[in-house]
Please model this.
Amino acid sequence: MAIATDRRRAMEITERLRRSGVPMAVFCTASHWNTEAILLAARHMAERYSIKDIPVAVAMTFTYENMPQACRITYSQDPQAGFISIMEHLKALCGRPTSPYYDVTVLPHLDHADPQKDRWALTEGADYLASVMFDAQKYPWDENVALTADYVKAYGDRVLVEGIFERLSVEGRAKGSAETAEKAAGAGKADSYVSDAVEYMKRTKVDFLVADLGTEQQTRAPGGVKYLKDRARLLTERLGAAMLVLHGTSSLSNDQMQDLGADGVVRVNMWTRIAREAGQYAAGQLVARKSLIDAGEFEAAESRQYLYDSIEQAARIMEDILEILGYARLR
Model:
């Protein structure tokens, strides 16, 4: 089956990647064209290296305040409609033996799900999913731990769960919280973040930790941050296994993305750079067709060509990322 929504199967796929030292690519989508671009990139990679059942996570947020992807998918901006339409689109594209991307194994992922605002997606939507990022980062520490632990107890036998205990950096927004700063200042340790992470993982029993490794979400300047390699390796050592999730990967240069698996990063989440650069490329192609559009030439003017240009460029970018992450080792 090309779409994996069973926890056991999702964990088997995760272990396959972990043994190879390859982080799973978690590519987000906010449109049907972006979804197909993910599958196209994976298929090209599989063909190039003869990779059987190449795995990739197709992710989306629900009503995440910094980027509500499910709301962007349809003109109605209804998140349930957007969520379901992407899931049904995946079934059409890769869910049947005769589907065009059946050779790609897709693990649907719900990203940045708020315990309250995104309750439908976390509960009723779980049947569509392989994994969930239960995002209680804005809540006080004890409440975050309690909410996350309760969700793991209720749904952890159905989906893999990512947890997070500290606010991630988003371009143009403050990072962290006063409570986190006070906790760190009073700890008297070289890196209290690591101790807090170990405690959080122990109390919540989540499968993966969305770790603050110095990256910035939605950045416009790839390579403009310092990736905290030493923190990643120390976290992995103290946690006893590779279980880190990296967000804000768009802020890293290609060189900084090398060897993330060796640092204990098992899932790499990315979207902003891909969508922005694909849009820039498609816009350039659109401008180049202006004389044909003005003349009323149908194929030049019809929106399909812009979308196809976007798909092809996004797929090219994601193929490069799969190369950097080491997907060739899965053959």
Remarks:
- The first helix runs from residue 7 to 20.
- Residues 53 and 180 are 42 Å apart (CA to CA).
- The two ends are 19 Å apart (CA to CA).
- DSSP finds 13 helices and eight strands in the chain.
